Amino acid sequence: MENIIRYELTNYIGHAIIHLRIKMNYTQEDLAGYTGKNEKYIGRIERGEVRNITVDTLTDISFGLKITPSKLVALAEELERNAKTNMKE
Fold first, then answer.
1. Which domains does the chain have, with CATH numbers?
2. Is the pLDDT of residue 8 over 60?
3. Is the model's pLDDT at 30 over the cut of 60?
């Protein structure tokens, strides 16, 4: 059960990053430049392929998106709630 929850959270964090990145008109390359992370790594995070995102990475990406890490996680949780609500309808 814990692995399923972690998997879902990493997926929704990826969705939140995509949402914010597009809203700011950033490419993956732009975000990689702002965070010091590799463009391909950013893509893997967005697709939910990275299961153990470190706090440092989450912080770097958040700051690259000009938000706090807690706001990024809150957006991910909101996206998750909305998805689950839509599945019930």
1. 2-88 (1.10.260.40)
2. yes
3. yes
Contacts 24+ apart (CB under 8 A), 24-31: 24/65, 24/66, 26/65, 31/61, 31/64, 31/65
The reported pTM is 0.86
Average of per-residue pLDDT across 34-41:
96
25: left (phi over 0), alpha (psi -120 to 50) or beta: left
The alpha-helical segments, DSSP class H, found in the chain are: 2-23, 28-35, 39-46, 55-64, 69-88
Cα(48)–Cα(11) distance, integer angstroms: 4
